[in-house]
Every structure is written in structure tokens, then in C-alpha cells.
Specification:
single chain; about 450 residues; alpha/beta; TIM Barrel; 2 domains; nine-stranded mixed β-sheet; about 40% helix
Length: about 450
């Protein structure tokens, strides 16, 4: 018998945690007992009958040989890959925006010429939704929720297309062309949102993701309006109140900026002590790569520390935080994550002119948008789109094989990795900090709960 190659050791205060990075099984043992066990493991004596050995075998931390390890890895990887199905649509109704946020990732890809904003037409909306309905019927999993994300740019800069998309998607649901479990969501900066929008979203059960980065002293530093007479934080707060008044489900998309980290207590209190604590969820996002912002060497580790602190406080008040919770779910359920992004075959991204791609980060130059909703046929669409993206998972990246966070990582953002390093198959360093630090916290948080 031998310790699995997927076995990783974490130690704290005389306790050792052995964790299988592949299956996410964990065994806690006093460090002294582990030392004794490892000595016996090196001897020819049979240790298979001991209680610790049986426990380690049950979590695949102790295996007969390397062949067992290799077979387990192949089985897990192929199972996870086979589970990928088409469930998401990003409908980019415009590629223009009324803000010029300092950290906007859509500004990062290089353009070959002057950029001109495009607005999606009704015809393109209809063709896109018809295509999504047909493709998910063929390549989706009927047990999984479908989500149509109304996206931009700022989608409410093309309000007409937003309303048309919602109305037509509901029509397709009535016809059972789209399933009942198809959710419609919009991601907006909230500046243009008015009472009519709030009523419309409430009537049609549209969930709203609202972008705000903390109090005005933080939000307004980075989220800069193109019109100088607009007070961003006030407008977003007004939009939040409207949405809550009409009982719209609203989550908050929050970027952890350097200013938020520096003034973390004030930042956190903004979301926990005031009206924003009534949000239906929060997503605390690490900054994407952009040459427009120079980050300190410790930004990512500091940002993840803030994520964890915020998650613990949110947990106390019943506020759901999405980014950390993804890792928590994988760890607790022992269900490893294949990818943290839909580019592996889970999503279609349609630009305002009807071009079909895999990633909204590249919408402005239309990189990786090889097809169109106006093409005569889409028989090989998924193969054309995803042939070079399906394996962009830590389970296919050699540099990830020995990482303890392999099973909870998901690999971060392929676009961020490509824009920074030149290849989507290089590491997204943000994901490395995020996953490793959260894994360490999860292991010892679970241990503390076991001993309460």
C-alpha cells in the first residue's frame, strides 16, 4: 500500500489533514500518529487492517499502486468532461457602455481599427433565441437549469432589445420550445434603470445583477461615468431600492478593488450594516488582467483574504456569496469542478451583430466569434466553437496536476490567462491564489466545526 499521488498534507497545531485533491476526501489525524503510520508504511508489515489505514483507503488516500491512482484520475476527468452540456446564453444586446470603468476587462483585447458601438436588432434577438432553444434541446441536459444572460456593454443602453428578448423568451417557454426551468437574468450597472424596468423585470421574473463596489468613496473612484453630471453610487442605490420595492430578485456584482482592500472594514460594513444586506446574493470578484491597472504583488492574496473574511460575515447574516460558495459546494459535496467558466462547452455568446463566440471578453474585436446566427445551418457549431477550448480545465493542464486545489479550482478565466500570457492554457494566477487560500481555510474551518 502507498499514499496516493493525489494525497496532500496540511498541518496545524499538532493536527494533520490528508486531503485527496481529486476526490476532495479529507482525513484528520494527530500529527504524531501520522508519523508512526508513515513509518509502518515503509516497513513490510501489513498495515491494511488498522483503523487509520481503512479510513485512508475509504477516501482513496491510500492505494495499492500507481496504476490505481492513474485509473482513478482518468475516470474522474472523463466523467467531468462528459457532464459538460450547453446551458447558458450570453446575449450581448450592445457592446457600448455609459461608464468607462478603470478595470473593465472588455477594454483589454487589442483592436485592429476604430471601435464603433453596435446595437442588437429585434431580428437578431429572435434568431439567437431560436438557435439557443434548438441547440439546448439537442445538446443540453434537461435536468439542468438554462440561463439567458442579457449582457453588454450596458444592456439597458439597448432597452428595446432587452424587452424584446425577455418577451420572446417567455413566448418560447409558453410554446415549450424553451423549458420552464429557463431563467432570464440581466447584468447592469444600474445607471439607466428606471421604474418601468423594475416593474417589467418583476412581471417577467427577470433576476438582476447590479454592479456596485462599496461606498461612494470606493465605487466612484473606479466606476467613472461618461457624463460628468452622474453620481454613480447614488444612481445604483436608487436602482437597488426600485428593484427591491417591486420584489425583483437582485444580486450584487462587486469588484474587490485595491481601495476596497485598503478600507476593508468600511467596505464590508456597506454590505452588512445597511440596505444592501437585503440583496439576494453577492459575488465578490477579483480583478481581471488589464494593462490599465497596475496591481501590487500582494493584491491577489490580500483580495482572497478579504473574500474569506466577507464570506464568514455574510454567512452570519444569511447573505449568499457566490465566488467562495462555488468552492465550498465542491469541497463539501466532494464534487470536483471541471472548469470555472462556460468556454469549455457550456455557453454560447452572441454579439450585437449576431456573431457567435465562446467568450464575452473578446466581444469588441470579435476574436473567437467564427459563426453567425444568420448562417444557413449550424450543424457543426459546437465543434467549431469549442474544439480548442473543451480541454481548458486544470484536469488537462500539466502545471496543475500536483496542486492541492486541483479539485476545487476550475482554472479561473482562460481569457485573462490568454490576454496576460499569450495562451489560454497558461495559468490564470488569480485562480491559483483564490483556490489555494480558500482550500486551506475550508480544510481547517471544517475541522473546527467537527470539534465544536
Amino acid at each position: 500500500m502507498q499514499l496516493s499521488r493525489w494525497c496532500h498534507l496540511l498541518q496545524q497545531d499538532g493536527v494533520s489533514a490528508l486531503m485527496n485533491s481529486l476526490t476532495l476526501g479529507v482525513v484528520y489525524v494527530p500529527t504524531e500518529e501520522l508519523h508512526t503510520f508513515k513509518e509502518k508504511l515503509r516497513s513490510p508489515n501489513n498495515i491494511g487492517e488498522t483503523e487509520l489505514a481503512q479510513l485512508l483507503v475509504s477516501q482513496r488516500l491510500l492505494v495499492e499502486n500507481q496504476a490505481v491512482d492513474k485509473r482513478a484520475f482518468t475516470e474522474v476527468r472523463e466523467h467531468l468532461k462528459s457532464e459538460m452540456s450547453l446551458e447558458l446564453l450570453y446575449l450581448l444586446v450592445t457592446d457600448g457602455c455609459n461608464l468607462r470603468c478603470t478595470y473593465c476587462f472588455e477594454e483589454t483585447p487589442s483592436l485592429t481599427g476604430p471601435f464603433r458601438t453596435t446595437q442588437m436588432t429585434k431580428e437578431t434577438v429572435i434568431k439567437t433565441l431560436d438557435l439557443f432553444a434548438a441547440m439546448t434541446a439537442q445538446y443540453g441536459n434537461p435536468e439542468k437549469k438554462k440561463v439567458i444572460h442579457l449582457y453588454g456593454g450596458e444592456p439597458l443602453a439597448n432597452r428595446k432589445a432587452v424587452y424584446e428578448a425577455v418577451s420572446y423568451a417567455n413566448e418560447l417557454r409558453v410554446r415549450s420550445t424553451l423549458p420552464d426551468n429557463c431563467q432570464i437574468a440581466i447584468v447592469t450597472n444600474g445607471i439607466l434603470l428606471n421604474e418601468e424596468d423594475a416593474r417589467f423585470f418583476a412581471t417577467h421574473n427577470v433576476t438582476v445583477g447590479l454592479s456596485i463596489d462599496g461606498p461612494a468613496s470606493i465605487t466612484d473612484l473606479y466606476r467613472i461615468p461618461k457624463r460628468h453630471d452622474i453620481h454613480v453610487t447614488k444612481r445604483v442605490t436608487d436602482a437597488f431600492r426600485l428593484l427591491k420595492y417591486y420584489s425583483v430578485s437582485v444580486g450584487l456584482s462587486v469588484t474587490l478593488t485595491p481601495q476596497a482592500i485598503e478600507h476593508f472594514d468600511e467596505f464590508l460594513a456597506f454590505f452588512t450594516d445597511g440596505e444592501f444586506r437585503t440583496a439576494d446574493g453577492v459575488s465578490l470578484n477579483l480583478l481581471h488582467f488589464t494593462p490599465n491597472m497596475r496591481l501590487t504583488d500582494d493584491y491577489y492574496s490580500a483580495a482572497v483574504e478579504c473574500q474569506i473574511k466577507a464570506f464568514k460575515r455574510f454567512r452570519e447574516i444569511g447573505l449568499y456569496e457566490e465566488r467562495v460558495m462555488r468552492k465550498v459546494r465542491a469541497f463539501v459535496d466532494q464534487e470536483p469542478m471541471y472548469a470555472d467558466c462556460g468556454v469549455v462547452g457550456r455557453q454560447l455568446v452572441v454579439a450585437p451583430d449576431g456573431r457567435i463566440g465562446v467568450c464575452q471578453d473578446f466581444v469588441k474585436p470579435r476574436t473567437y466569434f467564427p459563426c453567425s446566427v444568420y448562417d444557413v445551418e449550424h450543424r457543426d457549431l459546437l465543434e467549431i466553437l469549442f474544439a480548442d477550448w473543451r480541454d481548458r480545465s486544470p484536469f488537462f493542464m500539466s502545471q496543475c496536476m500536483d496542486c492541492p486545489a486541483l479539485g476545487i479550482c476550475g482554472g479561473g478565466c482562460p481569457a485573462s490567462a490568454e490576454l496576460k500570457t499569450g495562451s489560454r492554457y497558461n495559468l490564470d494566477e488569480r485562480a491559483c491564489f483564490h483556490s489555494k487560500q480558500i482550500l486551506e481555510w475550508l480544510v481547517w474551518d471544517a475541522y473546527a466545526k467537527l470539534n465544536e
